[in-house]
Fold this protein.
Amino acid sequence: MNSTVSSPEFHLRYSRKGKLRVDCAQKERTIPVFLTIIAILAVGSFFFLDISWGKLLSRLPGIGTIFWKMMHFDISNMNLVMTSMMETLSITVLSTLYSLVLGLFFGMLAAENIFRLRWFSRLIQCIFTFLRAVPTTIWVLLMMVCLGMGPAAGIAGLCVHTTAFFTKSFAQSFESIPAETLEALEATGVGRLGVFLNAVLPSSLSQIIAWTGMRFETNFCECAVLGMVGAGGIGFVISNSIQGYDYGTAGIAILLVFLFAYSIERIFVWIKKCIR
């Protein structure tokens, strides 16, 4: 037996098997348009890039050859690999920690429900939107001009982009707190800063940990790339090894990057479950 419940936005239908189906007229119109636009952009991109598919396909077997060589791990340079790995980890920890503190501060200012100065919150959001729009690599290269090559430029460059990321993410988390909770505390005479420390921050802790874990993993992976442009760390070893055809050393370095990135993800998932 079929029955229908209609509303201006969607229709609820019960199929013959008794299952509830939701038919959204707006969604049915939007999806084909979206897919058509994506297809047009994809085809246009292929023509614009002028990729030689024949040449690309002819070189595909070479990819397998390179990966096969990387699987023959060479541990003769293990001390250099581990030292570079620790350097990358140190850059990741420091850049994430500094950005976390700055992100909490600026996220508090960017959230419109904390101090309720909309013009000021919008100004903070605009500034950090600009900082976030510039890729991390550009910030690191700019810091190299100021600070020289090495880990310091990597930390500073990562901090700029990561702080901008945390500011937006934390501000959204803070704004998700129900207004009734904030108004109840304010009615008891608690100041805005007290409301933030005693209500907003504890309520957003799970989201803060989730954002921090995701960004820590991202920063670690970015450090591996930034090392190739002179920021130090494991990326420098991988780049030099590949350029010197030392695929065994590059392979073991890439394997360590993968294992550590996966470990970071699992650790933060465990921490989040413990808090819940």
